[in-house]
């Protein structure tokens, strides 16, 4: 599974300026994306511009680095700090994001996707595990949540994976 990290101060700036939380932005990696190296500046590391879509609701451009299998989301280099057309007090949810008119989108720090992007972009398949929805008894959910509800779905996945591996080792 792809891991993501980011600087919370940069995330707060992104929320204030664009209304988009990096936790939402990284969801573009759940689907196919277009990727091209960001060569506008010498960053001292390889940065990639990735164009993707979230649930057919929002098309986003994410700039990131790959640090040993962990994608670090970066804010694009800012060209004009005073060009903010609108400030957001909180991150928008997807249905709110879909309703933002183009005239309210601040493009001042978003890299332009010129002809070189479209000529050089590579189509990349989804980088995350498939999302599955299922109904479970409440007591099962409570068991996996235990004293710490964070990460309970990962605990469920680990149990299911161990079971699947045990069944595979038994043979047909």
TrEMBL record:
Among InterPro entries, the record links this protein to:
BrnT_sf, BrnT_toxin
Q: What is this protein called?
A: Uncharacterized conserved protein, DUF497 family
Source species of the chain: Marivita hallyeonensis
């Amino acid at each position: 599974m792809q891991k993501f990290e980011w600087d919370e101060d940069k995330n707060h700036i992104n929320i204030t300026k664009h209304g988009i939380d990096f936790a939402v932005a990284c969801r573009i990696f759940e689907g196919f994306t277009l990727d091209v190296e960001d060569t506008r500046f010498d960053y001292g590391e390889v940065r990639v511009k990735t164009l993707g879509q979230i649930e057919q609701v929002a098309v986003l451009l994410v700039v990131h680095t790959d640090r040993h299998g962990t994608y670090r989301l970066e804010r694009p280099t800012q060209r004009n700090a005073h060009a903010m057309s609108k400030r957001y007090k909180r991150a928008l949810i997807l249905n709110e994001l879909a309703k933002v008119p183009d005239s309210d989108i601040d493009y001042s720090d978003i890299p332009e996707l010129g002809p070189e992007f479209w000529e050089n972009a590579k189509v990349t398949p989804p980088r995350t595990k498939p999302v599955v929805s299922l109904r479970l008894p409440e007591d099962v959910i409570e068991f996996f949540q235990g004293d710490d509800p964070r990460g309970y779905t990962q605990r469920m996945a680990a149990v299911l994976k161990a079971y699947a591996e045990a069944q595979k080792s038994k043979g047909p």
